[in-house]
Every structure is written in structure tokens, then in C-alpha cells.
Amino acid sequence: MKIKNDILSCKTCVYHQLLFGELNDFEYKLVNEARTEMLFKRGEVIKEEGETVNSFLYLRRGLVKLYKTDHHGKDHILSINKPGDFVNLLAIFSEKNYQYSIAALEDTLVCDVKLEVLKYVVSANGDFSLRVLKKMSQISEEIIESRFEQSQKQVKGRIAQILLFFAENIYHKEVFQLPLTRREVGELLSITTENTIRTLSEFRKDGLIDIEGKTIQLLDKERLENINITG
Q1: 20-24 long-range contacts, Cβ below 8 Å, gap at least 24?
Q2: 95 and 209 fall within a common domain
Q3: pTM
Q4: How does pLDDT run across 68-94, given as a tens digit for each residue?
Q5: Fewest Cβ atoms nearer than 10 Å: which of 18, 72, 82, 85?
Q6: Helix (H, G, I), strand (E, B) or coil at 92
Q7: Whether residue 93 is found in the same domain as residue 203
């Protein structure tokens, strides 16, 4: 992890309106003085399960995974977060310790804001508090909807869903470097590594995708979307 200093003020951040749009100048100053920009390399753990929750994190660049490790030592990926996401918003008011771990899937830049300052601003600014509550509700609904949709799909539907997710929501193009290993794809979709590899191979044989190492190209997005919908 390296400390960065890319922006002089939260007001100049492209993501400040997502949450901090309701702050006055004094509150901006407090948040700005309480933040630290941290750069993590791919694979670095940003927060570890059981660690004390003492800051608010939002993702400015890169990609992270939230995951839990079971008593057998097996990881289960809960979600993938992209730039502009508030990585630990659901944790900061509920638990004293993280119930999951956070790790970088790519070189990742995170803004870390001291929790005591965020809580002060929440208590002092009603409009900001409502914005925080609304954002928390949106995150909860997205997690519930995503997990429900996944539970209704067979293996092929789940693989199609994640390929479309990366193409449409993360990279916004049909050729991209898959940031997950085959094992991590299985951890995210609750399927085995073997099923992940076999399904990707079947998709390639059927002309749906092309694979070259970690590079994925969607060749027939319409058919993938149909598999995603039908499960």
C-alpha cells in the first residue's frame, strides 16, 4: 500500500456528488482533512475480516472484491465493487469489526475517511444523513436483487451474467481482461472451478466468446443475453 495525493480537495473529485454533494464548506474542509488516498496493488488486502471498522472507504480507481472465508479456509466472494462505489457503507454504522475482507483485483486507489468525522457530519447535516440512508438502501437492494437473480440461474446463466456484468458495468466494451481467476469466478457464482472452466470452454466452442489467456471477447452478445435471461 502506498499513500497518494492525487487531488487537493474533495470538491475536485469526480465522485464527490455521489455522496458529498450536500456538504457545506466547513464540512468539506473536515472531510478533506480526514481523508487519506491509498494505492493498493492487485492482490493486496485492504481490510481483513475481524479488523476494526474505523473509516469510510470509497473507490476512486480500480476494482475490489468483498469476500468471507469459511471455517474450511475457502473464500466466498460477496460482491465486486467498481470506481464510485462506497465499499464499506453498510458496515460503518452496524458493526465494530468487519464481517468480510476487502482485496484489490486490480491496482486500486481508495479514499479512506476517518469514521469519527463522517459520523459528525451525519449528525450535523440532515440532508447529508438522508443521502447516506438512501445510498445504504440502494446498496442493500442491489445486493439482494443480484443474489436472488443468481440463485435462479443454472451454471451457464451465471457465467453469462458475470461476463455481461464485466462488459457492460465495469469495462464498457466487449473485449476486456477478466480480473478474476477461474477459481474466483466460481467463488463469486457459487459454482466449482471445474464447472467454470468447462462452461467457458463450451461458450468458446459455441462461438459465444473468444478467450486468449485472461482476455475475453464477447462474439455473440445477443445469445449471451438470452442465456442470462433464460438461466
Answers
A1: 20/128, 21/131, 22/125, 22/127, 22/128, 22/131, 23/121, 23/125, 23/128, 24/125
A2: no
A3: 0.88
A4: 998 888 899 999 999 988 889 888 887
A5: 72
A6: coil
A7: no
